[in-house]
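OP here, attaching both records as promised.
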Amino acid sequence: MLDLTDDRSFADTGFLTHMAWLRENDPVHWHPHPDGGGFWAVTRYDDALSVYHASDVFSSRFGMRIGTNPGAVAAVTQRMLIVSDAPDHTQLKKVLSKAFAPSEIPHAEQLTRGIVQTLLDEAVEAGEVDLVEVARRLPTRVVCALMGVPREEWDWLGGTMNAAFEGEDEEARLCAHAEIFLYFTELVAQRRAKPGDDFVSRIAHDQRSAPGGKRPLTDEEIVVNCNGVLAGGNETTRYSAAGAVLAFLEHPDQWSRLRQSGSALLPSAVEEVMRWTTPGVHVLRTAMAATRIGDTDIGEGDRVTVWNVSANRDEKAFPDADRFDLGRTPNRHLAFGGGRHQCLGTRLARMEVSIFLEELVARVGSLELIGEPKFTASNFTWGVRELPMRLIR
């Protein structure tokens, strides 16, 4: 059996075969942990959806991924959106979502298009590129711009965020995380003193409901959630954009279809790219009461993992699920999770990928792979990490 706790199990696409076996034979699977205990692995779409929608039973505040340091979670629980339950989660998300609303950032599409055009023009001009490096810069630059981070610091902050998750050792990753927290602490202080027209300024001067009335978000709430927004946006769009290009290389008929159909196909194409790539591999929940998932009894305190990457290949929810089909509809995938904890940046990620596909078609006639694709070895956020190729004008 595949060890779901071992990142090395996810160094290529072979784990998808194991997920298919679990869906068919053991959809709510008890997975022992090497350090003792274990967790349930939920791999079918309907079961995954039931966990997401039962947020009163399945808690996020004790951690949302396998292998999380309990002390680190305890330090930010009920203050960081992804490790919070209602009512704190509700109030935090209301403030953060408002700051990302279309009315608050009407320039987001124009900003994103300009960034995508610059990146793709440079890539086409270069000829041979690692497409992942192109895709890596897109979400970082967009989110940094929306946060009001100075232009000259975009690439530094993006590189530091990558080091925080992909550093060579634990010490390097911790140092990178510390740099990011320090950076946002200083940025919040600046925005409190002199607000601008940006995401950080808006949440720094908004208020959330609290016992007895309302209060501003604390510096800590703002800093940890800015870190979460930057990390989430960076991972999802990078892996989806690069994964889309790899999918076109592997399914040239779909690349031709997109080029011939143009913008008419973009809405369904974006959803299929998200389903196909599913960068967020799993999430963790903790059962607050005895319950059932499907035909399986779940005990109070049990840890339950939802494997989005498997649910999005469930044949019962997605006929011919192993076929990359840009016209697939309906396509109610779980690439952004579901229920109360659906990803805060869903709209922004969809817009980034849509513009990326549109501008790619406008600039590139054909795609040529010039090296072996390599994948990130991670059971949490996964995708292609190297994609050497040639973009032909």
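Record two, same layout:
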Amino acid sequence: MSQDIRQSRIAQALAQRAHDVLISHNFAQQQIGYIHTLDLNYGEDIPQRTMLDVEIAAASKRQELNSSHLKYVAKASNHLHQVIESAIENKKEDLEQLYTEVVGIQDTVPTILDILSVRSASVGRLEPLVNDLSWLGRDLVSLVNLPQYRKQSAKGTAVKVDTPALALRYLGLENLQFVIPTFAMRHWMPHATEPFPLLKRKLRDLSMSTAIAARQLAELEGVNPQHAFTLGMLMDLGKIAVTRLYLRTFEQVWQNKVMIAREKNHKDLHTALLELSPDPLFLRNLLMHDSMILSAKLIEKMAFRYLPFNAVMEELVAMRSSNNDTLSDPLPLTRILTKAHGYAQYLLLKDSNLIEEDEAQMWFEHLGLDKSLLEHLGKYSYHTLQLTIL
């Protein structure tokens, strides 16, 4: 096997592992065959009482029943997810529904992001738009009233900002270029992701890390850092759509199947359905196969006039669709986003202790992140924006 092929296979495995970690740490461990040390017995075998023949027969019968029940539950789950898969395929075709209802994007947000990207941007142009988005106004006011950002009066007392208009002026356009995409993405995150409680936070962390890394790489390579940060933040919008779509569809289909089984007095099926919950492997596969395509469609629907994102997303989709992370001559912003997103996935795996040093080195070589770039990226925090407010 050539070094390039080996590197590509390891890169694909690590990308899959990063998606596993989004679902849950335990799921990622299971997928790589992790065995917890507490599961191993390093001491002497513990003496056990010899089972009576009748106990052996009873245990065998229980095992047979359990095996039969588990097979029935698995069959019910398979049938349920066939229905869910078909429903999701239909829902993915309705882009308007995905945009406005599933993710909940308001057209005012892309308009604000567009304005922030041009030289003629002004707080006065932003103010009426922000006033139309009550959640954004609240978030901006809350931000500037944090202890580290609050202004001091001449008497040394903290000045409280109580309106979005004041918050906009206090932050200034340069900060708003990075604050507003961040708040927008957080607003679109699923409100709850049970039975994967950490999925929401990990999606948020992945977007933040990608955006910050993209900004830093863009500044090094002479690409517009605001463009890089904004697209880095929006790049995984499809993951939000997929997560919301799957969890919502599962609940709808599951409730319908449970009701039918109860009405028709199918007790075994009813019992099996009550044991089912959203499947981590099914969701992982959806995230890997569909999220980038949905990101591209949602970003295209945002209809940006000045932000040059559509061509970049087309290239990113082409790279994922062909299972080939390289293009012959990608756009500068495509190169930056590929490296930034890969670095963010590395951080996700590192935080979970699920990547070895040799794997990381292979991953960085695959991404084209050399030692100098890694040293540069290593200087920054990837959890906060670290704003400078004068």
